[in-house]
Amino acid sequence: MTKAIKGFKPDFLWGGATAANQVEGAFDQDGKGLSTADMVPFIPKEKRGLSFSMDVTSEYIEGVLAGEIHDRYPKRDGIDFYHSYIEDIALFAELGFKVFRMSINWARIFPNGNDAEPNEAGLQFYENVFKELRKYDIEPLVTLSHYETPLELTRKYNGWYSREVIDFYVNYAATVFTRYKDLVKYWLTFNEINVMVHSPYTGGGVLVDKVPGKTSDQIAYQAAHHQFVASALATKLAHEIIPGSQVGCMLARMQTYPVTNHPDDILKAQEHNDLNLFFTDVHAKGEYPSFMNRYFADNDIVVNKEEGDDEILKKYPVDFISFSYYMSLSVTTHGEFEETAGNLIEGAVKNQYLESSDWGWQIDPKGLRVTLRDFHSRYGKPLFIVENGLGAYDKVEEDGSVHDPYRIDYLRQHIEQMKEAVKDGVDLMGYTAWGPIDLVSMSTSEMSKRYGFIYVDQDDEGNGTLKRSKKDSFAWYQNVIATNGEEL
């Protein structure tokens, strides 16, 4: 008789996740070059709609570099993790982290992306961080490219739209794999790779305005193909250079429901889900799914492949699938429903059964269980939730405390559904809550959209002491990890 699964496995990887461009700062120190993230300005709330583009133009970039445009670029400063990593990692250790997901900023290693030699100061910085994590027995989970394309690759090659960038990325991957082979076992190739089709600049440093006569989708899917090939080659290299290493892909999972049970709504939701899961299909199954042939034909998209590309994808699939999950989406063929704010997605409508965050993202814990079960059935590979959290306004009390029961409630409900999915038989490796420490928002460059268990004294204008302090959720998550998710 098969024994029922009761909870998370003993070696479950609990932790938190960040990105270099949102926490490090020091954008121009120790030989680092500019990245695409360094050119993304702060967008005040009054200038944003339900959905807005984070893409910038070539004219804008050249205007900034020429000193003709003077916006604020909060990701250049982050929360100064570059100088505070020892203090911050000590707090992560106090939380009980088993794993810390972070990224390497490519432009800190190769300032222009295609330099003949790497920047030693950048290599040493990450070595120091990894050793500090290892001091506390925290496993690094490292993303090679997390919205941090070296800016020079965008200016010279138009980022991932150019096939030449594959070789530069593979050289970068080989460099860091060789340097950190004794320090890092878990790697992710690209963060939220599907964001390429929603924001080509964010996802791949691609400037759509530099490719006249083609739609954003035509450009984005070509760039995504180059990333698929690069990811497969990086997976091959990791297995060769680091015995026992595990390499994963990473998807912004957008579980989509039909608003009604009208067959047209059901079909539309299925199409949305297929377009989302196309990216993990290629990574995990090693081939383009057949349903994309119809989509490409209907949208005049031709993906140019070189001889051998399909063989590379097939030969080097990822070891595990990781993803972000913040909310679900709902779509309909009927136009009478109110739109809601979505994660880069236009046309999502409100789900009447769900509550929303301060930023209009609809909170759907059970959707996480649905997502996990779907992934498990579709791929049969280990899964890793590498982003999940609640962006919210926090209030600092007179005594310095931050009471955030809303964050605790959000995370509790999602972890409960993770546990249910594990009981369903899902092979779940771990969970890294997004933003264990407050950081600069990816989409809006705000600080007021806070995720952390650790409060950082900095406001949207960059003012503050950067002092770290614990919120109520700190002790709660600490206990969750200590009890392996049994006490929520």
TrEMBL record:
<dbReference type="GO" id="GO:0008422">
    <property type="term" value="F:beta-glucosidase activity"/>
</dbReference>
<protein>
    <submittedName>
        <fullName>Glycoside hydrolase family 1 protein</fullName>
    </submittedName>
</protein>
<dbReference type="GO" id="GO:0005829">
    <property type="term" value="C:cytosol"/>
</dbReference>
<dbReference type="GO" id="GO:0016052">
    <property type="term" value="P:carbohydrate catabolic process"/>
</dbReference>
<dbReference type="InterPro" id="IPR018120">
    <property type="entry name" value="Glyco_hydro_1_AS"/>
</dbReference>
<dbReference type="InterPro" id="IPR001360">
    <property type="entry name" value="Glyco_hydro_1"/>
</dbReference>
<dbReference type="Pfam" id="PF00232">
    <property type="entry name" value="Glyco_hydro_1"/>
</dbReference>
<comment type="similarity">
    <text>Belongs to the glycosyl hydrolase 1 family.</text>
</comment>
<feature type="active site" description="Nucleophile">
    <location>
        <position position="387"/>
    </location>
</feature>
<dbReference type="InterPro" id="IPR033132">
    <property type="entry name" value="GH_1_N_CS"/>
</dbReference>
<keyword id="KW-0378">Hydrolase</keyword>
<dbReference type="InterPro" id="IPR017853">
    <property type="entry name" value="GH"/>
</dbReference>
<keyword id="KW-0326">Glycosidase</keyword>
